[in-house]
Structures are given as C-alpha cells and as structure tokens.
Design brief:
The complex is a heterodimer of chains A (102) and B (278). Chain A is α+β, with helices and mostly antiparallel strands and 102 residues long. Helix content of chain A is 59%, strand content 19%. Chain A is elongated. Chain B has ten helices and one strand. In chain B, α2 runs antiparallel to α10. The two termini of chain B are 14 Å apart. The relative contact order of chain B is 0.16. Classes of the chains: A alpha+beta (102), B mainly alpha (278).
Chain lengths: 102, 278
C-alpha cells in the first residue's frame, strides 16, 4: 500500500502562514519583517513567533540591522528551507491529484 | 489564508507573484543605460578635417594599442572611422558608473520596498565583462598569442576551460558561459560598438535575476540589435548609400531607444500591475 501524501507534511513548514513566509523568502534574496507583516496581514507578535519557529528549524536565516536609526529585521531562506518548501509543494500537489482522482 | 490545498496553492502562487512584482526594479537601469548610449552619440560625429580624414595607427596613443591588441575591425568604408581613445575612456567610465549605479539602486530599493533582489550574478558577470576586455584580452593576447604562438595558446585555453568546467557544479552551463564571455570580451574591443555588447550582457544578467517576461523581451531584443549593429557597421555599410556618420547616429539612437522603451515599459507595467490585486 502506498503512503498517503499527508505523511510527507512537515509540521514546521505546513502551517499556512509559515508556508507564506517561506514562499515569499524563496522568491527574493531577503525580505524585511515589515514587508512580510503587511503582505501576510499578520500582527508583529504572531509573525515573530512563526519566524522564530522557522529559524530554529534551520529553514530561515534572520539578520538584524539598522536603516538610519530604525531597526530592521531581514529574513532569507536557507538551502534546507528551499528543499522543505519544494517538498511541501509536492505534497500539496499530490494531495490535490489524489483528491481529484477520488 | 486558506486551508484547502487548492486554495492554499493558489494563494501561495499569488504571494510569489506579488513578491516578484514588488522586487522588480529593472526600469531604472534600462533608462540609465539608454541615456548612457544616447550620450555617446557626439563622440561618433564625423571629425572636421582640413586636409582630409586619413589617419595612421602609428599616431594613436599607446593606451589605445594596449586596449586593442589586435586592432579595431576595419569597416568597409574608412570614412569617419577614426579610432579614438576618448570613445574608450567614455565607455569605460560610463559603463562603470552605470554598473555601480545599478547595484546601488537595487540596494536602495530593497531598503525602501522591503524585498531585495539578488545582484550577485549581475555583479559577477558585469565585472568580468568590464574587466576582461581591459586587462584579460590585452594580457592574454600579448603573453600567449604573441609570445607562445597559437598552437600553445589554443592548448592553454582548452585546458583552462576544461579544468574550470570540471571543478564547477553545473558543468555544461559553466563551459557555455565562460566561452561566451571570452568571445564577448574579445569582440568588445574589436567591434566599433563593442561597448553595446557589455550593456547587452548587463541587461541579460538583469533579465535572469528579475525573471520578468517584459524585461527578458527587451534584453533579448537589445542583445540581438547590439550584435546586428556591430556586424552591420563592421562588414556591410561601406556599400550602403548613407553616410557612415548618419548610420552611426541611427545605430546608437535605435539602441538607446530600445533600452528607454524597456525602462518606460517596466515603469508602466509596474503601475498597471500595482492596480490589479495579485
């Protein structure tokens, strides 16, 4: 019996907002915290928690700096993050395919 | 955000499109290089000569000979084709400023918008294409082709490319890129409008990092046009009815126009897409 696609889901990645953060980060070299907050429509605290989870899982690198006197936080996707995102997208597509065939 | 897989995938695609759209900033370098090309036109105006416009390679400064070790391609018509160090100096300075301004622009824009485009590939390729004609081609030509002779030179070149290719992760792509860059670098100092090839490599590099259909279309159009203009001005237009200076003007003006149109197109596309929800 073949494994159900859901067994390939990664808990750290699968949460939809974290998936959103990884998708944006994969498209750019670096994304600023404020940009992610506004694009995903999240509160700063919520986004911060998601970013921390992804950083601890080694999927995202966080860089803090200043622009003038304003502190800025930049996030960039790691190689492991890219792989995890690609795997997650493959699982989602497999799920859809299975659903359509049913 | 959605929880259904289909809706989730759609939303992720929309997020990806939005991030890509927000990081697009190619309109500025296109406009800048369009202006740089147009500003070179006065250097190509025909010289006023009291005793005819004949010239000899011996009267050219040694720096010119260093930059053009194999000489400049001779056009079928010699009229108005006086080689000039000023042209070389202008292109070197303008292309360096254009390249630095482009990198600055992407960094400045990243801080303003909140998303940064990677310029590493653009920097690597442009630096190579800028530095190779100035140092690499003259040095290689003198040291290898003059001192050692072409049989040794060819062997050295082949071994060099094979070693670098074997060490690289993406072997075929590396070999193609190295050989193309060597060819472009050589042609830059041979063709009368060789500097347009540097601009072409730069905008193609931008198209690669930007991943925009519009940017890629204009970059490819400009690259094809730059090759055509160089081939045309070197081998064909001596037989044409138009004066060489007029064709030089047309060549530069049309090249500039393609870049300016690419820049304006990028700006308009940005405005239009900004009004459409992702």
């Amino acid at each position: 019996m073949t494994e159900h696609p859901t067994s390939g889901l990664d808990d750290a990645v699968h949460q939809r907002h974290r998936l959103g953060v990884l998708t944006i980060a994969a498209e750019v070299k670096r994304a600023e915290f404020g940009y992610l907050k506004s694009l995903l429509g999240l509160a700063a605290g919520t986004l911060s928690r998601h970013v921390t989870v992804l950083e601890e899982a080694g999927l995202l690198a966080v860089e803090k700096g200043y622009y003038g006197k304003r502190p800025k936080t930049w996030v960039s996707i790691t190689a492991a993050g890219r792989e995890a995102l690609a795997a997650e997208m493959a699982v989602l597509r497999a799920l859809l395919e299975r659903h359509d065939q049913a | 955000m959605a929880t259904d897989p289909r809706d989730l995938l759609d939303e992720l695609s929309a997020l990806r499109r939005r991030a890509r759209r927000d990081r697009h900033g190619y309109w500025f370098p296109f406009l800048l290089f369009g202006v740089i090309v147009a500003a070179a036109i006065p250097l190509y105006l025909p010289a006023r000569c009291e005793l005819g416009c004949s010239w000899s390679a011996n009267e050219l400064p040694s720096v010119w000979h260093w930059l053009h070790p194999t000489g400049q391609a001779t056009r079928t018509s010699g009229l108005g084709d006086h080689p000039s160090l000023w042209k070389d100096l202008y292109w070197m300075a303008a292309l360096t400023v254009g390249f630095l301004a482009t990198v600055w622009w992407y960094r400045w824009r990243a801080r303003k918008v909140g998303v940064e485009t990677s310029t590493r590939l653009y920097v690597q390729v442009t630096l190579l294409v800028l530095a190779f004609p100035l140092l690499g081609v003259p040095l290689v030509t003198r040291l290898v082709f003059t001192t050692l002779g072409w049989p040794v030179a060819l062997a050295v070149l082949v071994v060099g490319v094979v070693v670098v290719t074997l060490l690289a992760k993406r072997k075929l792509r590396t070999a193609v890129v190295i050989l193309s860059l060597v060819l472009v670098a050589h042609l830059v100092m041979v063709f009368p409008f060789g500097s347009l090839l540097v601009v072409a490599v730069g905008v193609l590099g931008l198209a690669w990092v930007e991943r925009s259909a519009l940017c890629t279309s204009f970059a490819v159009l400009f690259a094809v046009w730059a090759l055509f203009v160089n081939g045309w001005s070197t081998w064909v237009y001596g037989a044409a009815l138009w004066p060489a200076a007029l064709i030089d003007l047309g060549d530069l003006l049309s090249s500039s126009l393609i870049l300016v149109l690419g820049g304006v197109g990028g700006l308009v596309a940005r405005r239009v897409q900004g009004k459409i929800p992702a």
